[in-house]
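Q: Here's a chain of 219 amino acids. Please give me its 3D structure as tokens.
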Amino acid sequence: METPEGIALRLRPAGMMPRAAAWAIDFALRLAVLWVFAIALALLGDLGVAVYLIVLFGLFWLYPIAFEVLHDGQTPGKRAVGLRVVNANGTPVGWVPSIARNLMRTVDMLPLLYCFGLVAGLIDRNSRRFGDMVAGTLVVHVDSPHGHSTAPDVPAVQAPLLLPAAEQGAIVAFAERARQLTPERQQELANLLPQLTQARGAVAVQRLLGMASSFLGRQ
């Protein structure tokens, strides 16, 4: 998707398997914390039971909401697996969407073992369970940031045509792989775009590399 500023955001929705792994990690962490509190509160009698119920509520309902909103859409389990909750437009998730998606777990859990949520995630093209559909959220993979592009640093060349983000990305990908290709293969690929390069052979390759520099914000 493209932001109003013209910045292309590439979101990769997470499938059900990595989401299940993140949920299992979070569930294990919550059980461990609950077990520690249960031991500590066992000596307090009825007061201990009351505090235990408050902790239980917090761990199983407030825990995911607080982490998603205050920690960039990531619970410890999602961070370990490399996932993040975002709004459908790629912006950080807020309190209302996070509360909505987590309250809807009561529906996704039915009839047992997250059956409804699993079926919804397998059918939806973005692997959303019902909670995500209602809240307008996505669970996406967190791409590792790259320190810099491996595209050759050549003078920028403005493209003669206005290209959509996907085609700009394809040209940048060509530039990043250029060193792995023989000169003949580079020219063969560049010759496929005569309307864009307005040249052939080595000149076409250099113009594509220059356009990649332009798309990457180089001068």
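Q: Can you summarize the key feature?
A: The chain has two domains: 16-141, 146-219.
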